[in-house]
């Protein structure tokens, strides 16, 4: 049986765990969870294996705010990759930086997505048809290209989060163009409003279940529709107009700035 390989970041979170479970329920997938806490990630992989009856569920560890960890993750990957779901994000209440000195939301929620796609670019191309699904949000905006790290503006976790999700949507358009000839689609979505650490930090609860939140990302990863369109933004399985995908100049500027970070 030709089993498809899927990699899910933020798999220990509310929506990520539901995404990983739904993919594993489809026995045609081997699923690798990306976590950062070994005990938690290992326990979840065992739980998903048991619940799905799919033995092909494994895990790997990576701090996605650090490029060198992502590079190491890609270096130890020795399989094809058909589905990459960039889902990990965080919303610290106070401004913090990575050991490399990058503001943490920008590093995790934006550069983490960029570095994962870049690190797996050649594997995705070799594995095509392949798909990248960037979990973004309708809660997006406030991006300032000259202050992506809140060095000039006062930090607010809400503004930094909205900016990061706008960036995820813009970068989806940038990568879709670059992968167009390769059989790799790149789409993004709003998952749903789900109670989680991330939403609680922003002062929100959530009226949808984790599996409802996982529905659109999983649909983009598995339904034929997600292999036919690229560079688009979806809400509740519906392609939705994205105003952030209109300004090509801003998209290219953002892409270029992100690629100046190490
Ligand atoms: N919840 C909502 O209502 C909502 C709405 C719109 C969009 N979204 C999007 O949905 C996605 C998932 O959010 P969620 O609500 O499920 O959040 P969550 O429950 O807080 O999960 C976040 C996940 O990201 C991981 N993570 C954070 N920083 C990391 C890092 N530096 N390295 C590795 N992993 C890291 C966390 O790992 P730990 O378990 O180790 O902390 C966790 O697995 C995010 O992209 C978010 O923007 C959520």
SSE topology sketch:
Elements: E1 4-9, H1 14-25, E2 29-35, H2 38-52, E3 57-61, H3 67-76, E4 83-86, H4 104-127, E5 130-135, H5 157-179, E6 184-190, H6 197-201, H7 210-222, H8 224-228, E7 233-235, E8 238-240, H9 248-258
Parallel strand pairs: 1-2, 1-4, 2-3, 4-5, 5-6, 6-7
Antiparallel strand pairs: 7-8
Helix pairs in contact: 1-2, 1-7, 3-4, 4-5, 5-9
Bound molecules: NADP nicotinamide-adenine-dinucleotide phosphate.
Explain what you see:
- A hairpin with a 2-residue loop joins strand 7 (233-235) and strand 8.
- With 262 residues, the chain is an alpha/beta fold.
- It has helices spanning 14-25, 38-52, 67-76, 104-127, 157-179, 197-201, 210-222, 224-228, 248-258; strands at 4-9, 29-35, 57-61, 83-86, 130-135, 184-190, 233-235, 238-240.
- The protein is built from nine helices and eight strands.
- It has a single domain (4-258), classed as 3-Layer(aba) Sandwich (Rossmann fold), CATH 3.40.50.720.
- Strands 3-2-1-4-5-6-7-8 form an eight-stranded mixed sheet, with helices on both faces.
- Helix content is 45%, strand content 16%.
- Helix 3 (67-76) packs parallel to helix 4 (104-127) and helix 5 crosses helix 9.
- It binds NADP nicotinamide-adenine-dinucleotide phosphate (NAP).
- Residues 10, 12-16, 35-37, 63-65, 87-90, 108, 135, 137, 139, 165, 190-191, 193-194, 196-199, 206 line the site of NADP nicotinamide-adenine-dinucleotide phosphate.
């Amino acid at each position: 049986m030709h089993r498809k390989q899927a990699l899910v970041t933020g798999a220990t979170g509310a929506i990520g765990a539901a995404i990983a479970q739904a993919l594993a329920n489809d026995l045609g997938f081997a699923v690798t969870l990306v976590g950062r806490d070994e005990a938690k990630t290992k326990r979840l992989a065992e739980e998903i294996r048991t619940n799905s009856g799919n033995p092909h569920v494994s895990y790997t560890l990576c701090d996605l705010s650090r490029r060198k960890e992502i590079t190491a993750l890609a270096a130890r990957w020795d399989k094809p990759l058909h589905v990459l779901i960039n889902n990990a994000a965080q919303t610290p209440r106070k401004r913090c930086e990575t050991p490399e000195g990058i503001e943490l939301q920008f590093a995790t929620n934006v550069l983490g997505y960029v570095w994962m796609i870049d690190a797996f670019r050649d594997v995705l191309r070799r594995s095509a048809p392949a798909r990248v699904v960037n979990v973004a949000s309708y809660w997006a905006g406030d991006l300032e290209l000259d202050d992506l790290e809140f060095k000039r503006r006062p930090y607010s976790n809400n503004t930094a989060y909205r900016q990061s999700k706008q960036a995820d949507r813009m970068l989806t358009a940038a990568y879709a163009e670059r992968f167009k000839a390769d059989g790799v689609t790149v789409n993004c979505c709003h998952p749903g409003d789900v109670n989680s650490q991330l939403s609680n930090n922003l002062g929100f609860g959530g009226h949808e279940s984790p599996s409802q939140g996982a529905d659109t990302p999983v649909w983009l990863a598995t339904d034929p529709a997600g292999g036919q369109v690229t560079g688009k933004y979806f809400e509740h399985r519906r392609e939705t107009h994205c105003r952030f995908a209109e300004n090509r100049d801003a998209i290219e500027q953002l892409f270029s700035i992100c690629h100046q970070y190490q």
